[in-house]
Every structure is written in structure tokens, then in C-alpha cells.
Amino acid sequence: MPDGTAGTVAPILVREDRDAVATLVLNRPAARNGLSVALLDALAVELAAIADDAAVRCVVIAAAGPVFCAGHDLKEITARFADADGGRAFFADAMARCAAVMGSLPALPQPVVAAVGGLATAAGCQLAAACDLVVASDAARFCTPGVDIGLFCSTPAVALSRAVPRKAAMEMLLTAEPIGAEEARRIGLVNRVVPAASLREEAQALAARIAARSALAVRLGKRTFHRQAGLPLAEAYEVAAAAMVDNLLAEDAAEGIGAFLARRTPEWRHR
């Protein structure tokens, strides 16, 4: 989908497929990869297509330019203050579209890895937090700066508070202070910190390693993980135990166990 900026024809979202990994590249570097309605729609379309694509076993979300994502497109938002309703209808629609995209990431059958190479702020931080794993460059920074402009990052707080301890999330939300990649790893927002020059390579390698596993086991495991996470302990074990039974009855479990006992490499059938 092309950018809505006059005179440009470059797609605002680029998909690259390699080794069973689909990489989605935010491609609005001049706009700091701001989440315009058009970019949110493009993400929604591609994620829906990936969900039904059995050839894709892992996803990477990356970005062009020095900024991963600066959050919502504030120029687009500001222009709607002149609407007859002050922008209410547009804002409600934009937030609903954003929530749908963010909610689709943990619901996606395939694991999602964010490759954060620069600033991830506001809804950009939300995007990273909503992914299953985050690989960050040593130059990456994360921030929820809404309070600095009188707009508390309430929707980014949803993903952030599920990715890091609550007090760490509240400090980021209340102070608007950016944190570096190592601090983000310390609080659990980031899994790995790598040199900036090798960010995409490292994220791709991690995704490829995941994609090399049984797709059935990974998809079942991701779904169960997110389902049990919000349940009381006893219910969580019920859900997990039922998933283990289903997994044990799958062809790949029999193949994997047999291969382990025979000390050979398993041949996954992804069923």
C-alpha cells in the first residue's frame, strides 16, 4: 500500500519472505514510521494474510530508517481537531483500528519478533511490547512520553503492563523518560540486545530457529501460553493440561519423541 503523502509511491509496509519467516517492514522513515490509519490498515491486511499462510512459521516486524516507530501520526491527528465533532469520530476509529492490530499480534498463530533498531515511542513502544519477542539494537530506546504533551499513553499501557512489571510500566508512563536497550532487557521488555549493524540478521536468525520447529507445536504452544496467562492457577493448569494432551496426540509429537529416543533429527510434518 502506498504512502498517502503527495508525490510518494513507496509502499508504507513492505513484506519479505525467507526461510518460512515473513518480515514486515514499516516503511515511512520520513514520518518516523508513524502509525497512520493507512499503515495500521496495511498491517491489519498483512497480518490477516499471514495468519492463514501455512508456509509462514514466524514473523519479524522491523522498520526502515533510524526510528522504529514514533507512535501515532500526530500530524494526521492534529488535522482532525478541525472536524465538526473536534475529531471524536476519527479518534475513536483510529484507536479501534490500532487496538485491533495490537490485539492481533498475540492472537496470531505464528510467533512475532520485533526488531527494534531505534526509538520506539508511545504506540511504537506498544507495538514492540505486543510482540512475543523483542530483539533490540544497542542503540534502541523505549519511551511512553504522552504525559509530556498532555496525552497519557493509556493504550500503550495495555501492552506495556503485560510485558513488564507494573511498577516499571508506571514509571515509564508517569515520567516519560526513555530507557535504553539494556534497561529494557533488565525489566523484561527486550529479550536480546545486539549490535545495530547486525539487528536484522540476528532477528531473522532467531525467527528462523523458531520456524525450524514443528509449526503445530509452536502454534498450539503460543495459543495456550496467552490463554493461560490471564487465568487463575487451577484454571491455567486445566487449559495447559488439555493442550498437552492434544499435542501428544499430534503426528509431530510422535515423530519428535521417536527422533529424540533414536538420536536422529526429526522430520516435521507440521500436523
UniProtKB/TrEMBL annotation:
InterPro entries: ClpP/crotonase-like_dom_sf (IPR029045), Enoyl-CoA_hydra/iso (IPR001753), Enoyl-CoA_hydra_C (IPR014748), Mitochondrial_ECH-domain (IPR052377). CDD domains: crotonase-like. GO terms for molecular function: hydro-lyase activity. Signal peptide: none annotated. GO terms for biological process: fatty acid metabolic process. Keywords: Fatty acid metabolism, Lipid metabolism, Lyase, Transit peptide. The keyword Transit peptide applies. It comes from the Bacteria. Belongs to the enoyl-CoA hydratase/isomerase family. May play a role in fatty acid biosynthesis and insulin sensitivity. This is Enoyl-CoA hydratase domain-containing protein 3, mitochondrial.
